[in-house]
């Protein structure tokens, strides 16, 4: 007996020092002693008149208000008291208020001669929040829409505080919009939706500086909405502003509560985490939208790019075909644009292109499309436009440009060559129509007529392509192909860490043929397969020498075409080249574009993993300019992301800085290295260093050149 009393006294002393609500209970379920936290807990959440202090009984408490489950909980507790089970966890909270957060009752038998049990109340908010957070992040990686993700966050908050009702609000300019509010009536939401935060700043509880409003019913603005929305039972509003990375207000998280429903410290902290998750979802959605827009629009002019143009043209042709209605395509190219760039620099050229786009867009009618393909090439779709009208419209566009431009104090006058092709409805092939317009444009440029309408004679350009293809078929055999290398630099040290291999074609009569001209030809003809193998083998052969004599050089990067990568034997071919050249796999990096990977994600992932199994690194080239692969990034076996040159150039003047920061953040999260492409100035270098990008390549460091020019071989007898 004395031993039991001594044990009870010792456990009571321990109990009083515990930071969580706890009680000691005998074998009959009666509370022997409780600590201060337990008393405070029960004062906050009284158990419907049933005593939960010393002398109270847990079995009675579970039947009349203390635990969820009633008879089921009663039976479970009896099994522990009778020694059939050593411990038990029950949902806890029998009153309206105690259900305001997820609590658990933990019961465990203590080692003692007489039956003695420790009972504690555990706030399970953090565990529940972590489960909800994991689910939310999974949904984000699946590419679920913003509305669904915000709905998840609102439900997460209501899981933490079931007595409340949550709304996620978005800032649209100066106006609030409801992003998600699963349990709040529409009539009350109308008070938020469309609210101008500049005019109603003092009335709005969901802005900085007004995080807790005790009684909305007494407020002249919110009172009527409480009545109309049947929200009289929720007059308290706890709200947290949501900011983006730049500390710009983008929304708010609002929780409407009963007048006497408290928020625990734990719930308060988790609400702040929900606030942060809301910020992540909003920024993630903004980035997705920006990248989707960039994938289909030209960064400089904001016009549709080739991908969006192709889609719209085919749609117009499909609509026109059944009725035989005409569709005109105009291919527009600025004459001698290179002279403008050479005279005024690229900034002048960009300003001219922007003004050309603005003036040409002003010439369009509703339903017509203007796109920018590349450089100084623009293309227009004119539905329901026959040849005579198309010629008139082309003249109008030329007239719109004749007034000249004033750029940086310089007067710029331009002329434009325009090629026109018209579909009559039966020849509804978008690619053919574009090609015909392109041929007509070159004819206009050659003849200097300004505008030409396509005629059905054999295009001269097609003849030239056939001749070029004939030369290309023998280029490797005749030793006309060569590799140039461009260093990849450590931006902190200025030292090369890798090199990208780039193919060049030196024809004895044609001179140096641009890769932009012969690579598409090689892809169209299938010659890219043998040429691609030659490039890989040659890069490994020369790379083996470079790794031995170029200090710090650790990798050789080789571009892979879509046709190469799609072949079933591609991985075997890479393995064979590595064996034949004895090139270390860990020093080879294969560059794939987003478009290649996203064409068939499952097949791409299998091949990429097989390459990784060989020891080869994988880089995703031109990231952000093709398909949006954000939702797939966690599943792609990548090593490197290469930031496209358009983002690098834009980051230097701040236009694309938020996107670059977001890409860096994602790369860090998934463990990818990042290489910035197109670094041409010291400003580009500094912009990349400022966002944490350590590697880059571009003309600022070196133009592509033969390996011997970039890394001369050591003189005989010299040491490195």
UniProtKB/TrEMBL annotation:
What the entry lists under SUPFAM superfamilies is as follows:
EAL domain-like, GAF domain-like, Nucleotide cyclase
**Entries under InterPro entries matching the protein:** Biofilm_reg_signaling, EAL_dom, EAL_sf, GAF-like_dom_sf, GGDEF_dom, Nucleotide_cyclase, Rev_trsase/Diguanyl_cyclase
Stretch forming the signal peptide: none
Q: Which Gene3D superfamilies match?
A: 3.30.450.40, 3.30.70.270, EAL domain
Which Pfam families does UniProt cross-reference here?
Answer: EAL, GGDEF
Q: Where is the EAL domain?
A: 465-718
Stretches assigned to the GGDEF domain:
325-456
Q: Read off the CDD domains from this record.
A: EAL, GGDEF
At the top level, the lineage of the source is Bacteria
Task: Output this protein's name.
Answer: Diguanylate cyclase (GGDEF)-like protein
